[in-house]
Write a structure and sequence with these properties.
With 288 residues, the protein is an alpha/beta fold. Helix content is 37%, strand content 15%. Strands 1, 2, 3, 4, 5, 6, 7 and 8 form an eight-stranded mixed β-sheet that branches. Helix 9 (201-209) links the parallel strand 5 (184-187) and strand 6 (214-218). The N and C termini lie close together (12 Å).
Protein backbone atom coordinates (compact mmCIF):
# COMPACT_ATOMS: atom_id res chain seq x y z
CA UNK A 1 0.00 0.00 0.00
CA UNK A 2 1.20 3.52 -0.87
CA UNK A 3 -0.22 6.13 1.49
CA UNK A 4 0.26 9.92 1.22
CA UNK A 5 -1.25 11.81 4.16
CA UNK A 6 -0.61 15.46 3.26
CA UNK A 7 -1.90 17.11 0.07
CA UNK A 8 -3.54 20.38 -0.97
CA UNK A 9 -6.09 21.37 -3.58
CA UNK A 10 -7.48 24.62 -4.96
CA UNK A 11 -9.70 24.75 -1.86
CA UNK A 12 -6.61 26.29 -0.23
CA UNK A 13 -3.29 26.81 -2.03
CA UNK A 14 -2.86 23.83 -4.36
CA UNK A 15 -3.23 24.01 -8.13
CA UNK A 16 -5.24 20.78 -8.61
CA UNK A 17 -8.95 20.90 -7.98
CA UNK A 18 -10.09 18.34 -5.39
CA UNK A 19 -11.37 16.14 -8.22
CA UNK A 20 -8.10 16.44 -10.15
CA UNK A 21 -6.11 15.71 -7.01
CA UNK A 22 -7.78 12.36 -6.31
CA UNK A 23 -7.54 11.34 -9.96
CA UNK A 24 -3.86 12.29 -10.04
CA UNK A 25 -3.28 10.44 -6.76
CA UNK A 26 -4.63 7.24 -8.23
CA UNK A 27 -2.65 7.75 -11.44
CA UNK A 28 0.47 8.15 -9.28
CA UNK A 29 -0.14 4.69 -7.84
CA UNK A 30 -1.44 5.76 -4.44
CA UNK A 31 -3.86 3.57 -2.51
CA UNK A 32 -4.69 6.18 0.15
CA UNK A 33 -4.51 9.99 -0.01
CA UNK A 34 -5.39 12.59 2.62
CA UNK A 35 -6.86 15.93 1.57
CA UNK A 36 -5.46 18.42 4.11
CA UNK A 37 -6.20 21.91 2.84
CA UNK A 38 -5.27 24.83 5.06
CA UNK A 39 -7.95 25.51 7.69
CA UNK A 40 -10.79 24.37 5.45
CA UNK A 41 -12.87 21.30 4.61
CA UNK A 42 -14.40 22.90 1.52
CA UNK A 43 -12.84 20.41 -0.90
CA UNK A 44 -14.30 17.27 0.67
CA UNK A 45 -17.50 16.94 -1.36
CA UNK A 46 -15.81 17.36 -4.74
CA UNK A 47 -13.01 14.95 -3.84
CA UNK A 48 -15.44 12.30 -2.61
CA UNK A 49 -17.62 12.71 -5.70
CA UNK A 50 -14.64 12.13 -8.01
CA UNK A 51 -12.93 9.41 -5.97
CA UNK A 52 -11.72 6.70 -8.37
CA UNK A 53 -11.93 3.01 -7.75
CA UNK A 54 -8.98 1.69 -5.77
CA UNK A 55 -8.23 4.93 -3.94
CA UNK A 56 -9.30 5.68 -0.36
CA UNK A 57 -9.70 9.28 0.79
CA UNK A 58 -8.77 10.43 4.29
CA UNK A 59 -10.46 13.73 5.09
CA UNK A 60 -8.41 16.24 7.05
CA UNK A 61 -7.07 19.77 7.32
CA UNK A 62 -3.81 21.54 8.07
CA UNK A 63 -4.42 23.93 10.96
CA UNK A 64 -2.44 27.14 11.36
CA UNK A 65 -0.92 27.36 14.86
CA UNK A 66 1.62 29.45 16.77
CA UNK A 67 3.60 28.63 19.89
CA UNK A 68 5.78 31.21 21.66
CA UNK A 69 5.93 33.30 18.50
CA UNK A 70 6.84 30.38 16.22
CA UNK A 71 4.42 29.32 13.50
CA UNK A 72 3.64 25.64 13.08
CA UNK A 73 1.12 23.51 11.24
CA UNK A 74 -1.01 20.78 12.76
CA UNK A 75 -2.41 18.07 10.50
CA UNK A 76 -5.84 16.95 11.68
CA UNK A 77 -7.32 13.72 10.32
CA UNK A 78 -10.79 12.19 10.32
CA UNK A 79 -12.46 14.72 12.62
CA UNK A 80 -16.15 15.60 12.48
CA UNK A 81 -16.21 18.66 10.15
CA UNK A 82 -19.51 19.79 11.67
CA UNK A 83 -18.23 19.93 15.26
CA UNK A 84 -19.05 23.58 16.11
CA UNK A 85 -16.07 24.62 18.25
CA UNK A 86 -13.42 23.44 15.80
CA UNK A 87 -15.45 24.77 12.86
CA UNK A 88 -15.60 28.20 14.52
CA UNK A 89 -11.82 28.32 14.98
CA UNK A 90 -11.21 27.33 11.35
CA UNK A 91 -13.54 30.11 10.27
CA UNK A 92 -11.65 32.68 12.37
CA UNK A 93 -8.38 31.67 10.70
CA UNK A 94 -9.92 31.78 7.21
CA UNK A 95 -11.54 35.17 7.81
CA UNK A 96 -8.12 36.61 8.69
CA UNK A 97 -6.46 35.36 5.52
CA UNK A 98 -7.64 38.16 3.20
CA UNK A 99 -6.59 41.12 5.38
CA UNK A 100 -3.33 39.34 6.10
CA UNK A 101 -2.57 38.82 2.40
CA UNK A 102 -3.51 42.44 1.70
CA UNK A 103 -1.05 43.57 4.36
CA UNK A 104 1.71 41.49 2.75
CA UNK A 105 0.92 43.06 -0.62
CA UNK A 106 1.14 46.52 0.92
CA UNK A 107 4.49 45.70 2.55
CA UNK A 108 5.84 44.41 -0.75
CA UNK A 109 4.73 47.59 -2.49
CA UNK A 110 6.55 49.62 0.17
CA UNK A 111 9.66 47.58 -0.69
CA UNK A 112 9.30 48.62 -4.32
CA UNK A 113 7.74 45.41 -5.65
CA UNK A 114 4.99 45.98 -8.22
CA UNK A 115 2.63 43.33 -6.86
CA UNK A 116 -1.09 44.17 -6.65
CA UNK A 117 -3.97 42.72 -4.67
CA UNK A 118 -5.82 42.03 -7.92
CA UNK A 119 -2.90 39.85 -9.06
CA UNK A 120 -2.86 37.84 -5.82
CA UNK A 121 -6.66 37.45 -5.83
CA UNK A 122 -6.51 36.17 -9.41
CA UNK A 123 -3.89 33.57 -8.46
CA UNK A 124 -5.85 32.46 -5.40
CA UNK A 125 -9.09 32.07 -7.36
CA UNK A 126 -11.68 30.37 -5.17
CA UNK A 127 -9.07 29.05 -2.74
CA UNK A 128 -8.29 30.34 0.74
CA UNK A 129 -5.71 33.03 -0.02
CA UNK A 130 -2.34 32.54 1.65
CA UNK A 131 1.38 33.18 1.42
CA UNK A 132 1.89 30.74 -1.49
CA UNK A 133 -0.40 32.89 -3.63
CA UNK A 134 1.62 36.00 -2.77
CA UNK A 135 4.77 34.00 -3.45
CA UNK A 136 3.49 32.99 -6.88
CA UNK A 137 2.85 36.65 -7.65
CA UNK A 138 6.53 37.31 -6.89
CA UNK A 139 7.45 34.51 -9.30
CA UNK A 140 5.23 36.01 -12.01
CA UNK A 141 6.97 39.36 -11.55
CA UNK A 142 10.42 37.79 -11.75
CA UNK A 143 11.32 38.84 -8.22
CA UNK A 144 12.14 35.24 -7.24
CA UNK A 145 12.66 32.09 -9.28
CA UNK A 146 10.28 29.82 -7.37
CA UNK A 147 7.61 29.83 -4.69
CA UNK A 148 10.09 28.31 -2.24
CA UNK A 149 12.52 31.15 -2.90
CA UNK A 150 9.90 33.61 -1.64
CA UNK A 151 9.83 31.95 1.79
CA UNK A 152 13.01 33.65 3.02
CA UNK A 153 13.63 36.47 5.54
CA UNK A 154 14.03 38.80 2.58
CA UNK A 155 10.41 38.24 1.62
CA UNK A 156 7.68 36.07 3.19
CA UNK A 157 9.24 33.79 5.81
CA UNK A 158 8.09 34.17 9.42
CA UNK A 159 9.47 37.53 10.53
CA UNK A 160 10.49 38.40 6.96
CA UNK A 161 10.31 41.90 5.51
CA UNK A 162 6.86 41.35 3.99
CA UNK A 163 5.52 38.90 6.55
CA UNK A 164 2.19 39.62 8.28
CA UNK A 165 0.63 37.75 11.15
CA UNK A 166 -2.83 36.18 11.13
CA UNK A 167 -5.14 34.55 13.64
CA UNK A 168 -3.61 31.21 14.60
CA UNK A 169 -4.48 28.51 17.09
CA UNK A 170 -2.48 27.62 20.14
CA UNK A 171 -1.32 24.07 19.26
CA UNK A 172 -2.36 22.71 22.65
CA UNK A 173 -5.84 24.09 22.01
CA UNK A 174 -5.76 22.66 18.48
CA UNK A 175 -5.04 19.20 19.89
CA UNK A 176 -7.91 19.57 22.34
CA UNK A 177 -10.34 20.74 19.67
CA UNK A 178 -9.42 18.02 17.18
CA UNK A 179 -9.65 15.33 19.86
CA UNK A 180 -13.07 16.64 20.90
CA UNK A 181 -14.14 16.36 17.26
CA UNK A 182 -13.00 12.74 17.12
CA UNK A 183 -9.86 13.41 15.10
CA UNK A 184 -6.16 12.59 15.16
CA UNK A 185 -3.32 15.16 15.23
CA UNK A 186 0.09 15.03 13.55
CA UNK A 187 2.65 17.86 13.75
CA UNK A 188 3.46 18.74 10.12
CA UNK A 189 7.12 19.09 9.00
CA UNK A 190 8.27 19.96 12.54
CA UNK A 191 11.93 20.51 11.61
CA UNK A 192 11.53 22.42 8.32
CA UNK A 193 14.06 25.07 9.35
CA UNK A 194 14.34 26.60 5.88
CA UNK A 195 10.74 27.81 6.28
CA UNK A 196 11.75 29.80 9.37
CA UNK A 197 12.19 29.20 13.07
CA UNK A 198 11.03 25.80 14.36
CA UNK A 199 9.85 24.81 17.83
CA UNK A 200 12.37 22.97 20.05
CA UNK A 201 12.07 19.25 20.63
CA UNK A 202 11.19 19.97 24.26
CA UNK A 203 8.00 21.61 22.99
CA UNK A 204 7.20 18.53 20.90
CA UNK A 205 7.49 16.49 24.09
CA UNK A 206 5.02 18.83 25.79
CA UNK A 207 2.62 18.50 22.86
CA UNK A 208 2.95 14.72 23.07
CA UNK A 209 2.06 14.85 26.75
CA UNK A 210 -1.01 16.91 25.80
CA UNK A 211 -2.27 14.26 23.39
CA UNK A 212 -0.44 14.83 20.10
CA UNK A 213 -0.66 11.61 18.09
CA UNK A 214 2.28 11.91 15.74
CA UNK A 215 4.91 13.86 13.85
CA UNK A 216 5.49 14.05 10.10
CA UNK A 217 9.06 12.73 9.82
CA UNK A 218 9.44 11.88 6.13
CA UNK A 219 8.99 15.21 4.30
CA UNK A 220 10.78 17.00 1.48
CA UNK A 221 11.94 19.77 3.84
CA UNK A 222 13.72 17.29 6.14
CA UNK A 223 17.18 15.94 5.37
CA UNK A 224 17.85 12.21 5.70
CA UNK A 225 19.59 12.90 9.01
CA UNK A 226 16.64 14.95 10.26
CA UNK A 227 14.15 12.27 9.23
CA UNK A 228 16.09 9.66 11.19
CA UNK A 229 16.30 11.93 14.23
CA UNK A 230 12.56 12.63 14.16
CA UNK A 231 11.73 8.95 13.92
CA UNK A 232 13.90 8.36 16.97
CA UNK A 233 12.15 11.18 18.79
CA UNK A 234 8.76 9.73 17.86
CA UNK A 235 9.82 6.40 19.31
CA UNK A 236 11.03 8.02 22.52
CA UNK A 237 7.78 9.97 22.95
CA UNK A 238 5.39 7.23 21.87
CA UNK A 239 4.32 9.17 18.77
CA UNK A 240 3.37 7.91 15.33
CA UNK A 241 5.87 8.84 12.59
CA UNK A 242 4.24 9.62 9.24
CA UNK A 243 5.49 10.44 5.76
CA UNK A 244 3.83 12.65 3.17
CA UNK A 245 4.46 14.63 0.01
CA UNK A 246 2.87 17.97 1.04
CA UNK A 247 1.73 18.09 -2.58
CA UNK A 248 0.56 21.46 -3.93
CA UNK A 249 0.28 20.61 -7.63
CA UNK A 250 2.51 22.78 -9.82
CA UNK A 251 3.05 25.32 -7.05
CA UNK A 252 5.83 23.19 -5.50
CA UNK A 253 8.34 20.70 -6.87
CA UNK A 254 7.19 17.76 -4.71
CA UNK A 255 5.19 14.99 -6.36
CA UNK A 256 2.40 12.79 -5.06
CA UNK A 257 3.77 9.85 -3.13
CA UNK A 258 7.27 11.34 -2.85
CA UNK A 259 7.14 10.29 0.80
CA UNK A 260 4.61 7.85 2.23
CA UNK A 261 3.29 6.52 5.52
CA UNK A 262 3.73 2.96 6.74
CA UNK A 263 0.44 1.02 6.48
CA UNK A 264 0.63 0.05 10.17
CA UNK A 265 0.88 3.73 11.16
CA UNK A 266 -2.04 4.57 8.89
CA UNK A 267 -4.04 1.75 10.45
CA UNK A 268 -3.38 3.14 13.91
CA UNK A 269 -4.55 6.60 12.80
CA UNK A 270 -7.82 5.16 11.53
CA UNK A 271 -8.28 3.13 14.72
CA UNK A 272 -7.90 6.22 16.88
CA UNK A 273 -10.33 8.35 14.85
CA UNK A 274 -13.99 8.48 15.80
CA UNK A 275 -15.16 11.66 14.06
CA UNK A 276 -15.08 10.36 10.49
CA UNK A 277 -13.97 7.33 8.51
CA UNK A 278 -11.85 6.87 5.36
CA UNK A 279 -13.91 6.95 2.18
CA UNK A 280 -13.27 4.17 -0.37
CA UNK A 281 -13.52 4.93 -4.07
CA UNK A 282 -16.32 3.49 -6.17
CA UNK A 283 -16.03 -0.26 -6.08
CA UNK A 284 -13.16 -0.10 -3.63
CA UNK A 285 -13.03 -1.35 -0.06
CA UNK A 286 -12.15 0.61 3.10
CA UNK A 287 -8.49 0.20 3.98
CA UNK A 288 -8.83 0.13 7.75
Amino acid sequence: MRIDLHTHSTASDGTDSPAELVRNARAAGLDVVALTDHDTTRGYAEAIGALPEGLTLVTGAELSCRLDGVGLHMLAYLFDPQEPELARERELVRDDRVPRAQTMVRKLQELGVGVTWEQVARIAGDGSVGRPHVAEALVELGVVDSVSDAFTPEWLADGGRAYAEKHELDPFEAIRLVKAAGGVTVFAHPAAAKRGQVVPEAAIAELAAAGLDGIEADHMDHSAETRARLKGLAGDLGLLATGSSDYHGSRKTCVLGEFTTDPEIYGEITRRATGAFPVPGAGGRPTV
